[in-house]
TrEMBL record:
One GO process term, biological-process aspect: RNA modification
PPR repeats: 15-49
One Pfam family from the record: PPR_2
Protein name per the record: Pentatricopeptide repeat-containing protein
Highest taxon listed in the record's lineage: Eukaryota
Gene Ontology molecular functions: RNA binding
Gene source species: Populus tomentosa (Chinese white poplar)
Length: 119
């Protein structure tokens, strides 16, 4: 991630694709907090998140077991209308289950209209 971060910092006008790649990289490899810093930077630049932004942030929240921040990301998911994406739903279920809030995880699972082998 160090080399990717060097390249990212040299980019004058990073696109959502570049932000998403960096956010996903940090959400998988850490440090997880860096995902949230990049998300904040992205929003400060006026770049709106998409499902490829928010799903990794939910993963980072799960990895850190930070329920309150995860709930904020979940709220953002609902506001922008991405709650129907399976990657988002899986992320929300993982968040609530990793934080021990099984009732909410089950509720999200029960509300899914399309389930597959992964879910």
């Amino acid at each position: 991630m160090a080399y990717a971060n060097q390249i990212f910092k040299q980019t004058q006008n990073p696109t959502i694709i570049l932000f998403n790649a960096m956010i996903k990289g940090y959400s998988l490899n850490g440090p997880f907090e860096e995902s949230f810093r990049l998300f904040s930077s992205m929003k400060n630049r006026g770049i709106w998140p998409d499902e490829c932004t928010l799903a990794p942030l939910l993963k980072a929240c799960s990895s850190l077991s930070v329920l309150q921040l995860g709930k904020c990301i979940h709220k953002e998911v609902v506001v922008v209308g991405f709650e129907g994406f399976s990657s988002i739903r899986i992320g929300v279920i993982e968040l609530y289950s990793s934080c021990g809030v099984m009732e909410d995880a089950e509720k999200v699972f029960d509300e899914m209209y399309q389930r597959d082998v992964i879910v």
